[in-house]
Amino acid sequence: MQPFVFLIFGATGDLAKRKLFPALYNLYLDGHLNNEFAVIGIGRTEMEVSRFRMFVREAVSEFGRLPLQEGVEWERFAARFDYIAFDIMEADAYASLLAVVEERERKMQLTGNRMFYLAIAPQLFGTVSNHLKRSGLTNTTGWKRLVVEKPFGHDHASAEMLNEEIKRSFAEEEIYRIDHYLGKEMVQNIQVIRFANSMFEPLWNNRHIDNIQITASETVGVEDRASYYDRAGALLDMVQNHMLQMVMMVCMEPPSRLNTEAIRDEKVKVMRALRRYNEEEVDRHVVRGQYTEGKGRQGMVCAYREESNVNPASTTETFVAARLFIDNFRWADVPIYIRTGKRMPEKVTEIVIQFKALPKRLYFNKNDDLTPNLLIFRINPKEGITLLLNAKKQGADSQIVPVGMEYCNNCGDAPPEAYESLLHDAMLGDSTFFTRWDEVSLAWKFIDPIRRAWDKNPRSPEEYAAGTWGPAESYKMIINDGKRWWTGE
Ligand code: BG6
């Protein structure tokens, strides 16, 4: 890794505290940051550097995967952190930031590589990236990279505008758009399981796969994010990014080689082939739900509309289920069911590949409800793979039972967190697991008509009681196709 300065905008915010500082520290302890690097935190709140280092320390000890090492080790790490407070909307303030960066680079003999991380409200991305350019911060002898968080826009038009703005200061290959699901171990593992095992790829098509199901359920409600969430809803918060990214990973063709652009090219082809629904078709293929009062993990919880800072008449969806189709040769007529929501009974993210049943002969005609073969990618909180096969029950008279072959990816030491892996990649200049503009753009083109249809429709979302797997309509959708949800059942 080359030495670099890491500038974090929004350094006193939640993301920096929960994810970025702990990830940096873990990378440091694991020896991935052994070269010279400096971190400059930028925030609105005035504070001494010593106070900021204390903030980083608290973040690491509360949220770190690895325990904090007291003494010299910690001091050495903390000494790399600086802090500067200013109003990031003020163009003139960036001159002082440039001075601090240059001074750090001189003192630590760094070579001018700069990584800018925008852990701030997305509506500020454009302005900040303009100011970075105008102040000369991007005019460096080393490399420069911009890392931005989601959401990238709130529809296609706004995403395009934002992209145009950022592009004035950074080239596409210098922009790292985060989708933290792409940093998850088992999401990255999908392509390895698919392309490094001869037993799956020959079956990975509409001749052998009956349907695919992707569930990302959460037990939490809207928490303290109502001001964002009530505008976004589950469609923008989860489907436009994480869910579609998982669809791409499962459905892409094998890339010609394992390099960033070859992989992203194949992902984009999935998005091009993803059937777009017009506003009239939306109701048939997409279900939106909103939680009502119910029994959550910690007892009774209130309805979404009663959450603080949520409009009591809100029609924002906290649940989405949809039936998708990839209109290409490989996937013709294979439904891909996706489902995500808040206040569901379990926190679980998994992808189920359901293989087709065998002809109704031999065992299949004896027992019609024989479980189909399932390959399950467990993304979170369990990480691993389960392959469900049918086998003879021991001793019993030709009774057939499903048997699971399990691989657990997180039964030993805790694997790296998504942010560790993504930060590390960005530091190395590897953008494979970040989203390219055309992926984002096509995702919005799929989402926009759904949003428009819902916005025009005065009907409220379907209700589901907190602590359940979603509204009845999400069951009807799949049952009417002669199938069933596997996750959580
Ligand atoms: C975020 C969403 O992108 O992903 C949150 O904004 C959601 O609403 C979170 O809770 C889920 O991530 P994970 O890694 O916990 O599945």
TrEMBL record:
Coiled-coil intervals: none
Organism of this sequence: Aneurinibacillus migulanus (Bacillus migulanus)
Family: Belongs to the glucose-6-phosphate dehydrogenase family.
Native organism taxonomy: Bacteria, Bacillati, Bacillota, Bacilli, Bacillales
Residue span(s) of domain Glucose-6-phosphate dehydrogenase C-terminal: 192-486
Pfam families: G6PD_C (PF02781), G6PD_N (PF00479)
Top EC class for this record: oxidoreductase
Pathway per the UniProt entry: Carbohydrate degradation; pentose phosphate pathway; D-ribulose 5-phosphate from D-glucose 6-phosphate (oxidative stage): step 1/3
One GO process term, biological-process aspect: pentose-phosphate shunt, oxidative branch
Binding-site residues for substrate, renumbered to this chain: H180, K184, E218, D237, K342, K347
Function: Catalyzes the oxidation of glucose 6-phosphate to 6-phosphogluconolactone.
Active site (record annotation): H242
Endpoints of the signal sequence: none
Name recorded for this polypeptide: Glucose-6-phosphate 1-dehydrogenase
EC numbers for this chain: 1.1.1.49
Domain Glucose-6-phosphate dehydrogenase NAD-binding: 8-189
Positions with a binding annotation for NADP(+): G10, A11, T12, G13, D14, L15, A16, K17, R44, D87, I88, K150
PANTHER family referenced in this protein's UniProt entry, alphabetically: GLUCOSE-6-PHOSPHATE 1-DEHYDROGENASE, GLUCOSE-6-PHOSPHATE 1-DEHYDROGENASE G6PD
Keywords in alphabetical order: Carbohydrate metabolism, Glucose metabolism, NADP, Oxidoreductase
Gene Ontology MF terms: glucose-6-phosphate dehydrogenase activity; NADP binding
Record GO cellular component, one term: cytosol
Catalysis performed (reactions): D-glucose 6-phosphate + NADP(+) = 6-phospho-D-glucono-1,5-lactone + NADPH + H(+)
